[in-house]
Amino acid sequence: MKHTKKFLSLLAALALVFALSTPALADMGYTPLNTDPEWLAWKDGWIAANPEKWAAFDPDLWFEIHYEYWTEEADFMAYGEIPDRETFEAHMAQGWLEDIKYAEDQYPLAEAYAAAHPEEYAAFDPDAWVERSWYNTREGYMEMWQVDGETFFKHMWNEYAIPAALPEAAQAWAEAHPAEVERFLAEEIEDFAARYSYAPIAATAEDWGTGEDYVRAVVLNLWVDGKLYEEEQQAWLADFEILHPGLLDRFRAEAWTYFGEKYAWWTGSAAQWLEENGLTEEEFAGQMARERAEEFLYREEERRQSGLTPGQIGVLYNAQYIPTQALRPEAVRGRTMAGPQALMEALGGTASYDAEARTVICTLGETVVTLKLGEQVLTVERAGEIATAEMDCAAYERPGGVCVPVRFVAQALGYTVLWDGLTGTAAILDPAV
Is residue 309, in this structure, part of any structural domain at all? Predict the structure, then answer.
């Protein structure tokens, strides 16, 4: 429905911030077959309890409706390395069953809302709701999701009830903070609803074909969920402060600098950003500090998984640390120096060393970068043209191999290089990504 789709789009936007790249299979909706024991037990139980529905499932129709506008069946099977028709059908059935389980997991909360609002439940019109929220008909929805009439009604009631029903944790919070809830409902709800384009509430109720109390319940649910998130974040930040004392204060002080780097696409003023997001300067600094702290811990975990210990220099490309165990990168007079073989392999190129000429040759496509040990200049040959560039450092040899300056080599190949002093990481960015 419209409001749940808007809410889910916010979650999707947050996920997109951290998803630097997406594999082709994920783009096509492909997921491996689930082998989790709990899932398999639920699946077997559901099939045993619903043999007629299981027998009626049409994998070709499921693919046609849910996948065909992305890819052809043959391509889907090739990319997923699906060996045969039986495995293909298993993939289609998994998608269907996952949707069924997701809906069934929501039934208890939706049923609780029905028990608390019997008049709404009695008056609920699933046909009107599917037209309004899915721009579809009962028959079209039932074909799309391969469900019967009874399940169709349950799905539509889920769609209606879940956004307005307070989950157990949210209900407990609301009961523990009655004064805050009362103030919100009396003084703040319209302003908060405007953040989600749900204001004025009376107009939204008319648009949705519901009562105003229902819209208020949806907005209250969103507000309480935000309060729970704030509490979780405060607890998380307290733990972060214990592990990294003083770092959050630094992040708050550098909030606008961090914002300028991460949200470079924003063309408005700082005041406009605060106004559009309903933030004070203090709240903004806290938000940026939280985001930066999350990135810091994520980067630290990536370093740990790559075998880097605290204090060691790392080189990052496409959101992954380059394996450099054979020849660890090091900082020399402010420059990150690393082995050319590992660096070029990660970039999709090659590197070689001419010991007699004391020359490193890095090749990527039609571009060849040449560095001579001890000399602060590199040569770039591309499409028959040769150019030189001065450096403030030089390649050198050390036990284990030769080292080249990451920034100058990567920039000569067309990449951008950033330095993260907090984690000791040189990040190589591909402008084409």
Answer: no
- Helix (H), strand (E) at residue 5: helix 2-18
- Which of the listed residues 218, 242, 266 is the one where a domain comes to its end? 242
DSSP states of 257-285: HHHHHHTTT--S-HHHHHHHTT--HHHHH
3-state secondary structure of 145: helix
| pLDDT tens, the chain, 433 aa long | 333 333 333 223 323 222 333 333 444 456 789 999 999 999 999 999 999 999 999 999 999 998 887 788 888 888 888 999 999 999 999 999 999 999 999 999 999 999 999 999 999 999 999 999 888 999 999 999 999 999 999 999 999 999 999 999 999 999 999 999 999 999 999 999 998 999 999 999 999 999 999 999 999 999 999 999 999 989 999 999 998 899 999 999 999 999 998 888 898 888 899 988 888 999 999 999 999 999 888 888 888 887 777 778 999 998 788 987 778 899 998 899 999 999 999 999 999 999 999 999 999 999 999 999 999 999 999 988 999 999 999 999 999 999 999 999 999 999 999 888 888 889 998 877 6
Q: Do residues 8 and 155 share a domain?
A: yes
Distance of alpha carbon 18 from its chain centroid, rounded?
4
Angle at the Cα of 295 from the Cα atoms of 293 and 298, rounded to 5 degrees = 110
Q: CATH number, domain at 351? A: 3.30.457.10
Among residues 242, 264, 287, which one ends one of the domains?
Answer: 242
The pair of three-digit structure tokens given for residue 297, joined into one six-digit string:
């811990």
Range of the domain at 40: 2-161
The answer to whether residue 157 sits within a structural domain is: yes
pTM (global) more than 0.85: no
Pair 151, 21 in one domain:
yes
Q: Confirm whether 94 is domain-assigned.
A: yes
